[in-house]
# Entry
Amino acid sequence: MKDIRDNARKLMEKFCYVCPVCNGRACAGEIPGMGGLGSGSSFAGNVQALAEIKFNMRLIHDVTDPDTSTTILGKKLALPVLAAPIGGVSFNMGGGISEEQYAEAIINGCKARSILGCTGDGVPEFIYSAGFAAIKKAGGHGVPFIKPWEDDELFRKIELARATGTDILGMDIDAAGLITLRKMGRPVSPRPMAKLADIIKKSGLKFIVKGIMTPDEAELAIEAGADAIVVSNHGGRVLDHAPATATVLPAIAATVKGRIAVLVDGGVRSGGDILKLLALGADAAMIGRPFSIAAVGGLQEGVEKYIDTLQGELKQTMVLTGTRSAVTVDRGILFTRE
# Structure
C-alpha cells in the first residue's frame, strides 16, 4: 500500500496530497479537487467524529475468526463495505489515469474481493459512460449512481443504467448544489418526495437514496419506496458546517433500521471505523477518497490490496472487541463515560 500511495501522490499532484491521515485540512476549499467545500469543516468533521469514538477492549472470549460478511440488497458481501460513487478523474484527481481505467479498477477490484463498487455521474459525458461500461463488462456487478438531473436527462440515464445489467441503482441527491456542475451550466436540484417516488417506481430497480442526514428524511425515503439510504453529506463537498455523518447516524438508524438498509459514508479510514459505524446502527459503510487513492495509485491491484487491508483491520478490531459477526454488532463495544 505504501508504493500505491506514493504513486498516487505523484499522479494526483496538486489535486490530492495523499496525506498520512486523510482529514480534509490540507485540501480545504479545493473544489475541483478532493477537498471539502468552503472552510472544509464538513469533511474534517466526518473524520474527527469517528476519531473521537473509542472501543471497549475485551479479550476474555472465544472470538478468534470473526465473520466479516453481510448481505445488502440481496448481495452477499465479504465485508460490509461499498466503494462510494466518485467520478471526474481529469478535474478532481489530476488525470493521471483515464476515467475508464478508474471505473474499471473500482468495479473489477470490488468484484474480485466480493464487495460492491459504485460509479459516479457528472459532466462531461465520459464520466458516467465509463462507469456504465465498466459495470456492463463486469456482468452487472456494480451500482451506478445518477444525480438528480431534470427529467429528460435523468430518465435517459436510468435506461442506460438498466442496460448495464445491474439490479441496483443509486441517486446521490446530496449532489444538489455541487459547485463543479454549476460551473459547467448543468445544475442539479433537490427532489420533492412525490417526485422521488415516481423516479423510484419508474426505475424498476432496487433503489438507493444517498444524502440522508435527518430521521424525517429517512422516513420520506421509505415512503418514496427506496430500498436503502446512505447517510451522507457528500464528503463535505456541498454544504459547509454540516454535522458529521457519525453524529447523525444513531438517530437515523434508531428511526428506520429494519425497514430499510442503512448505509453511511464520510471519514471512514480503517476497518475500525467500519466497526464503529456498524455499532452506531449502520448495515454497511461506503468509502470514497481512500478508494480513489488506491485506484489511481495501483489500478485494480491497488483496489484489491486496499480491500484486503480493510478486511484485516476489521477482523483484528472485531477480535479485540469480542465481536463475532458483522451483522450482530453490539453498541456495547463502544466506550462511554456514563
